[in-house]
## 1
Amino acid sequence: MTEGKTVQEIQADPVQAIASRLKVEREARGWSLAELAERSGVSKAMISKIERSEASPTATVLGRLSGAFGLPLSVLLALAEQKPERLSAHDRQPVWRDPETGYTRRAISPANSMVELIEVVLPAGVRVPYPASAFAFQQQQIWVLEGELEFREGDVVHQLPQGDCLLLGPPSDCIFYNPGMGPARYAIALVRR
């Protein structure tokens, strides 16, 4: 535990919770910072800053780190969130904001649910890439609730207007892009394989 902080304060701070979880995952595998950097393609200096809560990781960086650990991003974040309740009240759902793009991610499902629901708000003009490794251990669907989303899955581009729902294919490098003038809001449903 971080000196001077209660468990409740750490759980309420997603940056601290993510930092702690990344360090736990790295150390559990016996990896040095350099080894995680090599496996993930994220610089050793950035990983060190994230683990010390001196930097908030971007969505892309978290995707690379989760892929290096062999965990879906959603599992890595759920492990950081650690909520044992069956009810996930809206006002207590963890919301993470990407400091680089303004992308927000709300974890809707209670921890340890078989199906994981996530709400994402992607600002206009924002593009968020993820490596194939971030999708390797899950089946995922994207349901566009507001706006429009361009989803690149390998070489295939899906134009998804409001109401469309896409079941992702085999893991491949992906890019979420909002080509619209306003924010795109979508739900992601994940099932671990």
Note: The chain has six helices and ten strands.
## 2
Amino acid sequence: MNLRQNNPTDYDLVKQYIDGNQECIDKLINRHKDRVYTYIYLIVKNHQLTEDIFQDTFIKVIRSLRLGKYQDNGKFLAWVLRIAHNLIIDHFRREKQSKTFSKDDYELDIFNSNKFCEGNCEDDLIRDQIHDDIRELVKELPADQREVVILRHYKGLSFKDIAEETDVSINTALGRMRYALINMRKIMEERNMSLTFH
């Protein structure tokens, strides 16, 4: 077995773990924990809940590996994110009211990207207010629409990647983005808000 000792791939580590090397699961978790944690947090917006879902995700990963349910297709991380995604959806189904989530520590500028500020963004106050307004709008979207907006504008993923990560078709991902924008515009009209990026 010619496993790459210095920099083993995810496949190598999975294989060794299934063959009985317990250390390999720790290496896999350490390798991907930041990405998985961030993915969960961007959607649920609550540190305690993120911790819980993060732990549940890797418990399920370990259980699935032991039961031989993982078919390697070179996308271990995508598989882990899909498990996390399904656990998030399960949580939202149980908790119909998303009002239980704390909004205080959600300080990520989802749209803080140069493509929204080409040219003249000298007026930092206006720009910051716009970003605050957008954050508030995104928070009010249904979970599946919010997720697509975050993956698209915060993580910069293509709709193809979003479709893979959320386990839906590209058309569904595009549809969710379209509805998200419609909903954001509707809320803006109701509140007489004006967002100007120039």
Note: The radius of gyration is 19 Å.
## 3
Amino acid sequence: MRWVQTGLFLLLAFPLPGRATQDVWILIDTSEHRLSVMRKDKALLIFDNIAIGRYGASHSRMQGDNQTPLGSFQISWVKQHNRFYRFYGINYPNREVADLALSEGRISRQIWGNIINAIESTGLSPQDTSLGGYIGIHGIGKGDQAVHSRFNWTNGCVAITNAQIDQLNPWIKLGTRVVIQ
């Protein structure tokens, strides 16, 4: 019985990375090409040389423009076996993205309403709008490591190596906040 109490104490006092809490979040710096696992304002793990969308990053991303969206998101789905090794999907487009796109005239009120209705009814962002979708953090799969290290090559996602995805995996869960700046 005493070893059970000791084990419980140790788990509570020294949580494992897989027991990531809500104060752990992901910061993606598109200008520095860096992904950091953060706890409050302290970096716990840093990956340099990430790849982003082949045409950079923007607050005004649209479907097919190959730009990584800037903003604050959450991990909303995970695909463990993907052509990119592992895929952590973010809730893009979220309400903030839809509100900005409506105010800038990039989408109609009807499309904005469809996005908001989908989010409110299912809790998930629609992935097939004119703002695009299927954005996330993923590995390179069987892709070329040399291309990854020299070019921004994604269609708007954030890519890290497969080994880095394995290191990131214990820190990510559904609902993890992802800030892309």
Note: Residues 1-20 have pLDDT under 50 and may be disordered.
